[in-house]
Amino acid sequence: MNDIVKPPAGGNAVFMRRVIELSRESMNTLHGGPFGALVIKGEKIISEGTNSVTLWNDPTAHAEVVAIRRACTALNTFQLTDCDIYTSCEPCPMCLGAIYWARPRVVYYAGERTDAAQAGFDDDLIYRELPLPPSRRSIPMVQMMHEEATRVLAEWNAKPDKIRY
Amino acid sequence: MNDIVKPPAGGNAVFMRRVIELSRESMNTLHGGPFGALVIKGEKIISEGTNSVTLWNDPTAHAEVVAIRRACTALNTFQLTDCDIYTSCEPCPMCLGAIYWARPRVVYYAGERTDAAQAGFDDDLIYRELPLPPSRRSIPMVQMMHEEATRVLAEWNAKPDKIRY
C-alpha cells in the first residue's frame, strides 16, 4: 500500500509502543493472538484491549473490539467521538466495522493485513470475501422472507421515539 | 442483487419468523436497532441475539455478534462448526467479519443492506469504505512503527505452543 501516509501525522509513539507491548503480552500469556489496542482521548488512555479469542471462547474478542467495548463502558456512551484508536495491526473487517460504528477521530496502526496473513490469520481472506455478492461467498448466504423483514424496518422508520446510532 | 438464491435452499421459516419477531421486540423495547439473530445447531436454538447497542452502550452489540458470543459461551468453543446463523438483515461488515471468524455452516438472512441504509443505518457506507486503501477512508488511518509490529508477528510464527483460531 504505497499511498499510506508515512511517517505518522500526529501518532504518539508512546501509545504505539504500549500497544505493541500488549500484543506481545497477549501472545506470551496465550490469551489469544498477538494483537493489542488502545483507545485514547486527549492524552489519556481510556481503555486497553488484547486479543482474547481463545481465553474467553469469543471469536469477536479481537483487541480493537475489546478496547472499544471497554472505552464505551468507561465513557458511558456508544460513540467514541474525539477518541483515537491505536492498534498493533491493521484492523480486520470485523474490527474495522466496529470502528466505523464507534466513530473515533483517527486510527493509528502498525502491522498490515498481509503481515497477519503470513502469521496464519484470516484477515486478508475476509477482506477478499466481503465485496462478493452474498451468494458467492465461501460461507453460503441464503436470503429468505425479505418482505417480512422490510416491514419491520418500515415500522422503525415510522417510529418517533427511536434512538439512532 | 439478482444472483441471490431464492427461494431458500434449506432455510427453516420457523427460525426466520422467530428472528423477525426478535427484531420487532428489539425495536419496541428500545434496546437498539430493529435487528435479531439466532444460532442453530441441528434443529435446536443455541442462542438468540438482538441489537443492544443503545441499551448496553456497546457499538459492537449487533444481533449477530450478541448471538455468536452467547452461542460460543453455551457451546464452550470459539468456533461455530456445524451451526447455522439466521439474521433478520444481511450482516454489516462487522457482523460478517464476526461470522467468518466463528465459521458457521451457512447464514440465512432476510433484509438487505440497502434496506438497512434506507432505515438510516451505515451498513452500506461501511461496505463501500472497506475496499479502500486505509489512507483513503473517511475515518483517517495512519501507519506507524510497522517494523516493531512485524517482529511480534514473527515471534508468534516461531512459537510452538500457540493456539490457532
Question: Which properties best describe this structure?
Answer:
homodimer, about 40% helix, about 160 residues, 5 strands
Walk me through this protein's architecture.
- Two copies of one chain form a homodimer.
- The first copy, chain A, is α+β, with helices and mostly antiparallel strands and 165 residues long.
- Chain A is built from seven helices and five strands, in the order H-E-E-H-H-E-H-E-H-H-E-H.
- The first copy, chain A, has a four-stranded mixed β-sheet with strand order 2-1-3-4.
- In chain A, helix 3 packs parallel to helix 4.
- Chain A starts with 12 loop residues before the first helix and ends in a 7-residue tail after the last helix.
- Strand 4 (106-111) of chain A pairs parallel with strand 5 of chain B.
Q: Report the span from N to C terminus of chain A.
A: 32 Å
Radius of gyration of chain A: 18 Å
Poorly predicted tracts of residues of chain A? 1-8
Structural class of chain A: alpha+beta
Q: How would you name the oligomeric state of the polypeptide chains in this document?
A: homodimer
What sort of overall outline of chain A do the alpha carbons produce when their principal axes are compared?
globular
Sketch the topology of chain A as an H/E string, one letter per element: HEEHHEHEHHEH
Chain pair forming the biggest interface: A-B, 100 and 101 residues
Number of strands of chain A: 5
Biggest sheet layout of chain A: 4 strands, mixed
Strand line-up across the major sheet of chain A: 2-1-3-4
The portion of residues forming beta strands of chain A comes to 15-25%
Q: Quote the average pLDDT of chain A.
A: 91
The tally of helices of chain A reads 7
Q: Can you give the helix content of chain A as a percent range?
A: 40-55%
